[in-house]
């Protein structure tokens, strides 16, 4: 990104003399204050300029023929990208209170009255130029931070672009400055541990025990980095309304129980006094997102409860509501923090326990997802050291005629054959080795064409397909397999580094059954592979090809 980009100021005035006077004044200070000045002779011309450029501030004449200043300001602020551009109205008469109210309702930041006093004009403009320059500096800092690890580069750049487009004006606030500093802290900690462990692996005198510990550290810290990125992306999508729920009638009792089994399988619950009560609780919800809610609450209880503490998890039906309760005997929540515990970034300034790490957005994501389901979430605590109780309430629905078991509690049987289509040799070898260690017969293909050929010859039950493949990409692999009658019923799982809603839609449109974001958690992958295959409409018809 070029460093020569300067903040831009737009002057809008239908009177040629007034326009020349204002632009000439501003250009006197442009080199010293490091900004560019552009002009427009009408409201329509101003809208065209806003489509082409980002502006630090707009000086807008009130009285213009055709589209006046108020209408122009309203049109500028209707576009999401330009909604936060500050506008200073320029008027030749002293505006009364009604005119001022009308201007502020249309997004006015300030007024200037003609004849303009140069010192006043310069002071007002420099404030907004300084804010735009600060935002640009913050953007560059975020980009440098994203380069800390190649595994996070693409995701962090994507996140920065989303945040720039939606929330550029918010970066000037101190809360966002604190969050960026905390993000750097949270990324550097695991990266430092990974770097040290990697160096230990290369030392000639390192013993087997030390090497084993180093590998565990790398695995644990990589998972931590992945959780940070996933939380950031999920929260940004939830706040911008980009999460699309795939609802169906579901009993959340088995779903929560399955989440708990995953924590047990990974050893997270070792050393805790854990009790659960899973009654039937039928809701109309998205199983994946409800799993995310339950997982975040259980993870929160484990994180803030010392080893040996008590954790209780319950699902009950009370009247017209299904209630999920997670209670722990951990560090508790201070009274001043309790009302804000679900707010975004609240832990950036007042943390339950900063030594535990994390960005403090998991509970905010829980609230957003629960609200998308028409439910509510609450937290209670006796204070520091008194433990915490989190309660989720969702609207109850009638049980399904054919009850399903969400989350995948399955019977142990012969493992299905898995085809792994991945062009990265190291990643493919490690994934194949892990699956084989859990009893899955694994076939391997290094590109899309080889994957299609191997699938047609061997007819595996499941195919794990990377999207970014040489030759033909993962989307085309899925389309070809769905078109052929012999391979149309293979269960297709996409592996990709992109996790936005539009990426998921594209994967499903291509014919995949499931979309998993890299790096894929092994416990999650094993749970998905163990789920019984469901007949998909796209498998019966090649319409998606």
From TrEMBL:
Domain spans labelled Response regulatory: 8-129, 417-533
InterPro entries reported for this sequence: CheY-like_superfamily, HATPase_C_sf, HATPase_dom, His_kinase_dom, HisK_dim/P_dom, HisK_dim/P_sf, Sig_transdc_His_kin-like_C, Sig_transdc_resp-reg_receiver
Coiled coil: 128-172
Catalytic activity: ATP + protein L-histidine = ADP + protein N-phospho-L-histidine
Pfam families associated with the record: HATPase_c, HisKA, Response_reg
Ranges for domain Histidine kinase: 182-398
Transmembrane segments: none
Protein name: histidine kinase
Organism listed in the record: Massilia aerilata
């Amino acid at each position: 990104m070029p460093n020569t980009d300067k903040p831009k100021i737009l002057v809008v005035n239908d009177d040629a003399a007034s326009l020349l006077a204002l632009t000439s004044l501003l250009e006197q200070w442009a080199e010293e204050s490091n900004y560019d000045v552009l002009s427009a002779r009408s409201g329509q011309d101003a809208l065209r300029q806003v489509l082409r450029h980002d502006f630090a501030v707009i000086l807008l004449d009130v009285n213009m023929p055709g589209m006046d200043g108020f209408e122009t300001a309203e049109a500028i602020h209707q576009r999401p990208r330009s909604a936060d551009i500050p506008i200073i109205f320029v008027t030749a008469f002293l505006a009364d209170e009604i005119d001022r109210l009308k201007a502020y309702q249309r997004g006015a930041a300030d007024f200037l009255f003609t004849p303009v006093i140069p010192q006043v004009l310069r002071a007002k403009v420099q404030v907004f130029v300084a804010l735009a320059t600060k935002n640009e500096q913050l953007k560059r800092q975020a980009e440098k931070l994203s380069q800390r690890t190649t595994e996070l580069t693409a995701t962090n750049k994507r996140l920065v672009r989303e945040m720039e487009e939606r929330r550029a004006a918010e970066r000037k606030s101190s809360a966002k400055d604190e969050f960026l500093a905390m993000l750097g802290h949270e990324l550097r900690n695991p990266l430092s541990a990974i770097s040290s462990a990697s160096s230990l692996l290369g030392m000639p005198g390192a013993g087997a025990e030390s090497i084993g510990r180093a590998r565990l550290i790398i695995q644990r810290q990589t998972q931590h980095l992945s959780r940070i990125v996933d939380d950031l992306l999920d929260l940004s999508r939830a706040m911008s309304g980009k999460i699309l729920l795939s609802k169906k009638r579901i009993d959340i009792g088995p779903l929560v129980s399955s989440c708990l089994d995953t924590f047990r399988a990974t050893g997270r619950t070792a050393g805790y006094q854990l009790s659960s009560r899973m009654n039937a609780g039928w809701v109309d919800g998205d199983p994946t997102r409800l799993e995310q809610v339950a997982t975040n609450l259980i993870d929160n209880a484990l994180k803030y409860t010392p080893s040996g503490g008590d954790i209780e998890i319950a699902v009950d039906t009370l009247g017209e509501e299904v209630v999920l309760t997670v209670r722990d005997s951990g560090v508790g929540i201070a009274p001043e923090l309790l009302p804000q515990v679900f707010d975004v970034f609240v832990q950036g300034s007042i943390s339950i326990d900063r030594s535990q790490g994390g960005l403090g957005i998991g509970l905010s994501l829980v609230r957003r997802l629960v609200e998308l389901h028409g439910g509510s979430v609450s937290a209670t605590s006796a204070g520091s050291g008194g433990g915490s109780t989190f309660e989720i309430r969702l609207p109850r629905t009638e049980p399904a005629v054919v009850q399903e078991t969400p989350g995948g509690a399955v019977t142990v049987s012969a493992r299905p054959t898995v085809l792994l289509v991945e062009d990265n040799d190291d990643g493919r070898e490690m994934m194949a080795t892990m699956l084989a260690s859990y009893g899955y017969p694994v076939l391997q293909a290094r590109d899309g064409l080889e994957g299609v050929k191997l699938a047609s010859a061997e007819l595996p039950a499941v195919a794990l397909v990377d999207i970014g493949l040489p030759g033909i990409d993962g989307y085309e692999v899925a389309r070809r397999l769905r078109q052929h009658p012999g391979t149309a019923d293979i269960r297709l799982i996409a592996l990709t580094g992109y996790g936005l809603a539009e990426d998921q839609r594209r994967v499903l449109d291509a014919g995949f059954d499931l979309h998993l974001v890299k790096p894929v958690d092994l416990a999650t992958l094993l749970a998905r592979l163990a789920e019984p295959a469901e007949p998909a409409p796209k498998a019966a018809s090649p319409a998606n090809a």
